[in-house]
Amino acid sequence: RWVPAARDIKPDAVKEITFYELADAKGAAIGYAFVAEGQGYQGTIKILTGLDTSLENLLGIEILESVETPGLGQRINDEDFRKQFINLKVSSHIECVKSDTSDENQIKAITGATVSSRAVVNILNEEIEKIRPCIQKEK
Question: pTM of the prediction?
Answer without folding.
Answer: 0.87
